[in-house]
Amino acid sequence: MVRLGxxxxxxxxxxxxxxxxxxxxxxxxxxxxxxxxxxxxMNPLLEMDQEQELDEELEEKQEESLEEEDDDQVDxxxxxxxxxxxxxxxxxxxxxxxxxxxxxxxxxREKTEEExxxxxxxxxxxxDHLISQLHxxxxxxxxxxxxxxxxxxINNVGYLVADxxxxxxxxxxxxxxxxxxxxxxQQFDPPGIxxxxxxxxxxxQLFQQQPQHELAIKMVRDHYEDFKNKRFERLxxxxxxxxxxxxxxxxxxxxxxxxxxxxxxxxSNNYIIPDIEVRKEDGEFKIYMHDFNVPQLRINxxxxxxxxxxxxxxxxxxxxxxxxxxxxxxxxxxxxxxxATILRTVQAIVEKQHDFFDLGPxxxxxxxxxxxxxxxxxxxxxxxxxxxxxxxxxxxxxxELKYFFSEKYVTDDGEDVSxxxxxxxxxxxxxxxxxxxxxNDQKISEMLKREGFPVARRTVxxxxxxxxxxxxxxxxxx
Length: 478
What we know:
Blueprint: H1 2-11, H2 16-25, H3 29-42, E1 46-48, H4 50-71, H5 76-88, H6 93-97, H7 113-120, H8 126-136, H9 141-151, H10 164-171, H11 175-185, H12 198-208, H13 214-222, H14 224-228, H15 232-239, H16 243-253, E2 276-281, E3 284-289, E4 297-299, H17 301-308, H18 315-352, H19 354-359, H20 369-376, H21 380-387, E5 391-394, E6 397-400, E7 408-410, E8 416-418, H22 419-431, H23 441-450, H24 457-466, H25 472-475
Parallel strand pairs: 2-5
Antiparallel strand pairs: 1-4, 2-3, 5-6, 7-8
């Protein structure tokens, strides 16, 4: 019955207040600051708390003084270092994607000055760009929740880093529903977004082209191994075309974008600013919100008086003020609700993962979104929005809130462990493997079984790919 109730709630049309709260919940702290600053400029019924405004003016003066000192210290050596860093970014598809391919893709042509300028002025994050398209798509509220979860699991290069089975388990949805929404997202701009590997990325782009290049689609879809290993003669024979056609088709494919997520601002490219901090004080865990820079908003009383003064204020102005007043109140209430929801969610996470916060990351327990949703009586969609893109400062470092959610794995002794522990073991094995004879997936599977973790070879391969660890033959060092 509980699940039925949650399902029905997702199908209901959200009120404007609920839409506002949902949008604020998914914003990391810096994005929230920007959003509220924008609201301050747009709505005259909002004003900043005077005490906070004075503090900010003092801070700005101090920062200006420091910036003047810093500007004097910039020299040619620093500029040279910046240029070297830019050159390091010029690497091929394989190296960036850690794809298990041996096909030597040609680097795309050099960008013109005009194109480079276009990339530099891109001021929107990839996540924001995708979520704005998601909300314009013809989807149900339940599908929007799935879409948001998928988008927050797309990396800076543009690839989906969580497998659809895990997403389905976390959101308690059918795998078919996840695949369906993923298919919608893969039609978004930029082309190739949301693919799970390089082959799918290329295919998504090829299918979007009009007219479609049928030979290129067949080559990537049906003969990918021969394609990536440049087996020209075999491709010509199997596709029943001449060598020139094979080479022309390969030229066409190598013009596609292997990194569709590039060119957008990234949350992870900036310094990570934790939204929350957990400290142990007097034997108890205390939770602190890092929202001291968030504008403290209040209603401008001068405009409220104008609205009530029918003699001096005409009806049109009063209606305008009334509308803005309602929006201002919704926003202020949503900010308070956002804060309370995040605190409740984090409190539940800390309680469920007590051993992690007390003893360290190796004590992470398996936990899914539903565990927290049931604990605090909220929808899974709310927990998903709270945990996406937000970070928590702990005694053991800074972690994304999503880190605390993982699949359950049962050992030979019947103990439930997090799949993150399995991944850590795999990484440790790879880090300490013989350089000239690295372990293949089957070998790692056998080693895990000896330690009491019966993990199938296919599961090892899946976890290895999620950690961007290449196959054994590509890890071999002489």
